Amino acid sequence: MPAIDFEGRSVPIHAGDSVASALYRDGVRILSRSFKYHRPRGLYCVSGDCAHCMVTVDGEPAVRSCVTPAANGQRVARASAWPSPEHDVLVSAWWMRALLPVGFYYKLFAKPRWMWPLAERYIRRVAGIGPVDTTARPGRILRRNHHPDVMVAGGGAAGLAAALRAAGRGESVLLADEGAIGEKVAPGPTRSAIAKLLASARAHPQVTILEHTRVTGLYDGPLVIAAGEGVAHWIHPARIVIATGAVEQHAVFPGNDLPGVWLGRGAARMAGVHGLAPGRSTVVVAGTTEALEHVETLRKSGTVIRLVVAPAAIAPHVPSGIPVVVDGTVVEARGGRSLRAVVIMGPAGRTVVSCDALAVSLGFVPRDGLLRQASIGIINGAGDVVEPGCTVARAIASGEAAAERPLSAPMSVVPGVGAPPGGGIVCTCEDVTTKELSAAWDEGYRWTELLKRYTTATMGPCQGLLCHQHLRAFVVSRSPAGPAGAPTTARPPARGLTMEEAAAGAEHAIEQRTVLHDRHIDRGARMDWAGAWKRPASYDDPLAEYWAVRRGVSVMDVGTLGKYRVCGPDATEFLDRLYPVDVRTIKPGRSRYGLLLNEAGHIFDDGLVAAMGANDYFVSATSSGADAAEAWMRDWAETWRLRVHIVNQTTALGAINVAGPSSRDLLARLTKDPVDNDTLPYGGLRKITVAGIPCIALRVGFVGELSFELHHPRSRGVELWDALLAAGKDLGIRPHGLDTLKLLRLEKGHILVGQDTDFDTTPGKIGLESLVRMNKPYFIGRSALERLATRPPQRRLVPLRFAGTNAPDEGAQLMDGDRHVGYLTSSRYSPALECGVALGWLATNGGSGPVRVVAVSRGQRRDQGEVVSAPFYDSKSVKLRG
Amino acid sequence: MVEITESRAAIIACLDTAEVLDRLPDHGGAFRARVACEELLLIGPATAAADLLAYATAYLERAGSSGLAVDVTDAWSVCTVSGADAAEVWARLSENRMPDERPAFVQGAVASIPAKTIAGDREIHVITPSNLGHHVPHRIFSACRDLAPQAGAPRQFAVRRVAPAGAGASSTDATPVRVAS
Amino acid sequence: MALLITCPNCGSRAYTEFWFGGELPAPPPAPGAPVDASAEFGRVWYRRNVAGLQAERWFHFAGCRRWLTVQRDTRTNAVHAGD
Q: Is residue C16 in a domain?
């Protein structure tokens, strides 16, 4: 016999069982303990709307057992009770409720101040609906996108009618229902009508039906998220129809949340679908004609109907033989852990009736969680959700109208019971009593939105499906005129959504890779993020990499650099306006280092501008700034309406920097083209063929040694890398990574934009005024620099030298006596110079600033430093110009 | 069932005024992807690279408005997904709607990266920057396990056209052009 | 989650495919034209930041990699085409 594992014991499953019905048949009556007061809760709505039946199933908390099919081997347990749900010590919160008034956490524990951290730790442990399994799972849930013309939420009569009407007009329709369509409806004419509509919808090629798929939220777009079985559906419709139906009205009186108190439909479902009686002796409140059917269904399940309370219009139709109280009201439900008796107020006075089940049918309220999430004009309501308790024919007509109208339907207002003086739990999700609502009102919270936030009513799992109307009715009863009783916004998810479903389809961080990526991995490189790229930080021996560059020859993968071809009739004019350097005087075969300034005169990127021919340039930018530089160029080309072609070649070209005193010798082995200092001088560029691969060779000086940056087609990159490493074996060649690069350039005092520059760094602040041609009539940032020229900078980026073998931390703060004067942006120990070299910001206050400073690193370590001039290494830059 | 392969393409960027690009004639069946008013990509099999570049250069020179033709093949990676479930792969990896006509050209994110996609008959060619070329195949294999993705051998780029009704072609059936989105 | 922007080259796309370029500033002075320093400072640093329709720039990095200008109502996020 199939069974579920319920808290260590085996509970048998019958055909068609939900988890709740299987437990109920086994005698389990308390399914949960409430959120704040730990009151016992049992089955109530049996339609997935309230939160009374939430249990943990197979490690997933907050599962509504009444709508979850039971399956063999499921592990089911109840949560949030100690020592057990039957006897929960934490129900003492209910007995102490005078000490825990509404908003108590804002008032209690404020003084003494040490109390709150202790109290918070305790509250965290006892609050909540269940533990979450935090062990990571691989993404089992897929994301799938849909683009129907019309999205319908709800597969009842109205939803199906709306789908068929839209499809009939040639539109594509996606309809989602949270269960199997028609299963919630008792056998009868409604059920047959739905079955007929469903058959037509299934047969229609324009209609796609998703069952067991809950619509959880509506978002801008519009975008509808619906969670199905193993799939998170992202739906992008043009229009939305909400036909989610109605719920029976939640009854409010003292004891209204006891196990044994049911909504009428809930008791009838348990009796009719599962054959389980709600109790031995039942009182029925028959406020709707539908409730008369419930009486029959309940009787058939074997319970004795003790009494029916009905309004005058319905009373005559109650089957004979059953006592009736006409126009009576239930004012109290009595019991400890379950119902024992109800107190009824009728025209003849008070009656106390012993019973163990109460089935209440007071009317219908819209299941309007989705409608209250959004106020977009392309959403229509249809059926019960706008006309609760309407007939099938009316629902069908409403659905058809919703499929055609582009306007949103008004939300219907159903009077709730408000706050009867006797009390009761208004919001069962959050345990908000009528007394708390009144107290909040007295404290001055007199608007639905404020009451909601202060009491947390409607903020629980059901998002007000049970209590929203009551909240509004309460406000309206106290303040009949005015907008204070306006509906509140519901928040997604409208139905339960797991973190896995929400994260379905999300990407891990996506790496950009050069074509040499696998070569680096094979060499054992330590790869690290550099912006959106993965780059080798170092290989096996960083110090050996360093000396290879300084004394021998080394290669580095610089394929991540931004690279562009900028050409066209206005290319020179364009670049001359973009950069503060003089572009017009760059001759073909020569390059110039340029800073990119924004209109405020601040540096945001740097690179080379190299002339290939007339009005034909090769431009480079930093690796992390490449995309921003392209966007910048395109924006200005459009603004100035200049005729210029911008080809982003960042990914089309790889680049390898061959650096070191022997770099020319190495190149000469692999190319027949001349690479001597006269043909290819420092700052020059030339097209050469290296190992059979066409390259643009740029003489650059970033690392302070003779170097050749070889730009080549990406597809030939591995070939070139391998050829260089093979040909340089006897020269002791080894590649160097980003860590070594950063040290090498620091020894030359070369800045890294973004590390040594701040968001407001002008060329003057870093001693690069020479790179700005102020006598050019125009370049971006010129007027800002002109305005700033009248004020000397308050701080400058300066080179500093630190004696000793331990360079201060990057970020170390600089002190002059006990005055704080700056901080270090870059700092490394230099093996060649045997001292620490650094760049840092120093307060100069218009002057030149202190010469001797102390750098304070982590752990209060102090290093004496002095401001020097850069470069630290090869101060005349003889090596890189050779 | 879907097959994932690398397509070896020749991609020639043609940059000129909108009028000149509008009039660029068809050449050897190469796909014309209009990226923007002043940029068009000619996409054909890798073997046609030199021919396409020469054709585009000559055409733009004749047009006389300082246009530019550049071989940008290396800037891109082309991942081809073919099979009956190609449309399903699209539905999982892209939030954007695939137009009904075939062939179709769509620019927009696929698997959260920039992409240009050409849709043929039961196939999509996802063209992404080459520094992200590893990503789309990886995502397909993890997001579409239930569709039994198979890796195929690299092939020359070609867009499979839908056979016109009644043509009796051997390799295509008379599937309707409309593809469920 | 899906504020939609219609790119003239690519069609309707979620805003996550774009980089936001900010409120469209006044046009820059023509290169070489005389510049009033304080007016230029205002043009570079200040924005109107209206509650209402705002002309703004977006760059479609995931698609055509071109700039476009839209009118967005900053109160409702309704997006309209145009300068």
A: yes
Rounded CA gap, A297 and B110, in Å? 54
Phi, psi of A28 (to 5 degrees): -80, 125
Strand spans (E) along A707-780? 707-713, 734-735
Residues 6+ apart with CB under 8 A from A28: A6, A11
The distance of A577 to chain C (nearest Cα, Å) reads 8
User: Which domains does chain B show, CATH number per domain?
Assistant: 8-73 (3.30.70), 76-156 (3.30.70.1400)
In A264-376 the beta strands, taken as DSSP E runs, fall at 281-286, 304-310, 324-326, 329-335, 339-346, 349-354, 357-361, 364-366
The Cβ of residue A556 has, within 10 Å, a number of other Cβ atoms equal to 25
> A222: cis peptide before it, omega within 30°?
yes
User: Which of A106-110, A833-837, C7-11 comes out lowest in average pLDDT?
Assistant: A106-110
CA angle A201, A206, A207 (to 5 degrees): 40
Q: For chain C, how many structural domains are there in total?
A: 1
Question: For residue A562, what are the β-bridge partners?
Answer: A621
Judged by a CB distance cut-off of 8 A, whether residue A648 touches chain C is yes
Establish if B109 touches chain C: CB-CB under 8 angstroms: yes
Selecting from A222, A599, A638 the residue whose C-beta is nearest the C-beta of C67 gives A638
Q: Which amino acid type is present at position A298?
A: L
Is B76's Cβ below 8 Å from some Cβ in A? yes
The DSSP code sequence of B33-80 is EEEETTEEEEEEEGGGHHHHHHHHHHHHHHHTS--EEEE-GGGEEEEE
Quick one: A58 and A26 in the same domain? yes
CATH number for position C63: 3.30.2270.10
* Contact criterion met (CB below 8 Å) for B73 and B11: yes
Measured CA to CA, the distance from residue A578 to residue A873 in angstroms comes to 32
* Structural domain that includes position A351: 250-362
Q: Is the pLDDT of residue A122 over 90?
A: no
Asked whether the beta carbons of residue C61 and residue B114 sit closer than 8 angstroms, the reply is yes
Identify residue A144 by its one-letter amino acid code.
R
What amino acid is encoded at A60 in this protein? E
- DSSP lists the bridge partners of residue A792 as none
Nearest to A234 among B95, B143, B181 (CB): B95
Q: Determine contact, residues A158/A249, Cβ cutoff 8 Å.
A: no
Cβ within 8 Å of C, B 156-175:
none
Name the residue with tokens 């970020």: A811
The DSSP code for B164 is P
Neighbours of A206 (CB within 10 A): 18
| Residue C33 included in any domain | no
What is the rounded CA–CA span in Å between residue A546 and residue A155?
Answer: 70
Residue C31 covered by a domain: no
Bridge partners (DSSP) listed for residue A40: A33
- Residue A376: its pLDDT value, please? 58
What confidence category does residue A101 fall into, taking pLDDT thresholds of 50, 70 and 90?
confident
Mean pLDDT across A411-434: 76
Report pLDDT for B181. 33
Tell me which amino acid residue A575 is.
Answer: L
Residues facing residue A591 across a β-bridge:
A610
> Are A444 and A551 found together in one domain?
no
Measure the N-to-C terminal CA separation of chain B; round to a whole number of Å: 18
- Nearest Cα residue in chain B from C1: B95
The ipTM, to two decimals, is 0.97
Residue B56 with chain A: CB contacts under 8 Å: none
Nearest of A659, A583, A642, A643 to residue A618 by alpha carbon:
A583
Exposure class string for A507-532: b at 16+ Cβ within 10 A, else e: eeeebbbbbbbebbeeeebebeeeeb
Contacts for A36 with CB less than 8 Å, ≥ 6 apart: A93, A100, A127, A430, A431
